Amino acid sequence: MPTPIQPIVIIRRVKKGHSAAHGGAWKVAYADFVTAMMALFMVLWLVSSSEQVKKAIGGYFNDPTGKGKEVGNGLRGAGGESLSLQKDDMNKLKEKLEQAIKTSQPMMNSIKEHVVMTITGEGLRIELVEDAKGMFFQSGNAEPTTYGKEIMASLAAEIGKLPNKVTMEGHTDSKPYSGRQDYSNWELSTDRANAARRWMQANGMRDDQVSQIRGFADQSLRKPEDPEDDSNRRVSFIIQYQPAPEFGALAASGARGALSASGKSPVSVGASGGSGTASVKPGPPIPTTPAPANAKKK
C-alpha cells in the first residue's frame, strides 16, 4: 500500500513592531527636563549662598585652569578669586596708604618720586627710594633716619590692620662698601631690611606679619644702566595677595548655612582635606516605633 503524502504546512510568524510611543524620542525630552531642573536648583542654591561662595564660584569660571594663581615667585595669589579682583583691592589699598602718608607728611608732593607704589605679580610693592643725601638711610648705614622712621611708622600703622603677609627687601647700589673688610653690600642690604622690620613692628605691624627678609645687594638694580645711581639704594615692602579659602570649604559652609536656616539637620556636610570637595555624612539615626509584641510576621 503506498505511503500517503503528508501535506506541507507553512507557518508564517509575523513580527509585530513597537508603536511610535515606544521609540527613543522620549529620552531626549526627559534629558532636557532633568537638565533644566538641575540648572534651576543650582540657581536657587547660588542665590541663597553667601558672598564668599559666590566669589569663589565666579573666580573658577573666570580662571578654570587656575593659572591666575601661579604668579610672581610661586606665591599663591588670589586663590578662588581671580587676580583682577585682588588687583582692584590693591588699588584701593594703594590709595589708602598714599592718603595716610599725605596726612602724616604735608610735603608729600616733594617726595612723591621717593615713595613709589606699584602693583606686581606678588602684590603691592612699596619702595622707599634714596637720594644723594640719604633720605631714609644714611649712605653705608643700616640705621633709619628720623624722616625714614616717620614714613615707615605711617605705613606700619596701616599695614598692621591687614591680614596680608609682608615681604621686606633691601637693595644697594654698586658702590663697594668700604667701612669694613668683613662687611659688604650683602650684609648692608639685609641689615636695612631687618632694621625696617624692627621699626615697623614696633609701630603697628604685627610680629607674625613678615614672611620673608631679602637682601639683594646690587643684584636687582632699579637703574641697570647706571649701577651707581642713588635711586638703586632702596628698601621695599611687598604686601602679598591674600590666599582665599578653598572652594570645597566655601561650598560646605554655604551648605551648612542653608541647612541651619531651614531648621533641618538630616545630614552633616564637611569638606574633605585632600581633594577640596564636599562630602556628605549621615546624620543621627531616626528613632522608630517598636512593633507590638503580638504582631505577626509576614
What brief labels describe this structure?
single chain, 298 residues, alpha+beta, 60s Ribosomal Protein L30, Chain: A, five-stranded mixed sheet, two-stranded antiparallel ribbon, 6 helices, 7 strands, elongated
Q: What would you say this structure looks like, in words?
A:
This protein is of the alpha+beta class and 298 residues long. The chain has a domain of 159 residues: 2-Layer Sandwich (60s Ribosomal Protein L30, Chain: A). Helices cover 35% and strands 14% of the residues. It is built from six helices and seven strands, in the order αααββαβαββαββ. The strands form two sheets. Strands 1-2-5-3-4 form a five-stranded mixed beta sheet. A two-stranded antiparallel sheet has the order 6-7. Strand 1 and strand 2 form a beta hairpin. Helix 4 crosses helix 5. The longest helix has 24 residues. It is elongated. It starts with 24 loop residues before the first helix and ends in a 16-residue tail after the last strand.
At a glance:
The chain has helices at 25-48, 51-62, 83-104, 146-159, 185-201, 247-262; strands at 115-119, 123-129, 166-171, 210-215, 234-240, 267-271, 278-282. It is an alpha+beta fold and 298 residues long.
What is the CATH C-level name of the domain at 82-240?
Alpha Beta
**Mean pLDDT across every amino acid position:** 75
Query: What distance separates the N and C termini?
Result: 69 Å
Order of adjacent strands in the largest pleated sheet: 1-2-5-3-4
Total number of β-strand segments?
7
Measured by DSSP, the beta-strand proportion falls in: 5-15%
Annotated CATH topology of the domain at 82-240: 60s Ribosomal Protein L30, Chain: A
Q: In CATH, what is the homologous superfamily of the domain at 82-240?
A: OmpA-like domain
- Return the CATH architecture of the domain at 82-240: 2-Layer Sandwich
**Which H/E pattern describes the elements?**
HHHEEHEHEEHEE
Q: What composes the largest sheet? A: 5 strands, mixed
Q: Any low-confidence stretches, pLDDT <50, length ≥5? A: 67-85, 247-252, 257-262, 264-283
* Shape descriptor: elongated
Provide the structure class: alpha+beta
Helix content: 25-40%
Q: Return Rg in Å.
A: 35 Å
Number of helices: 6
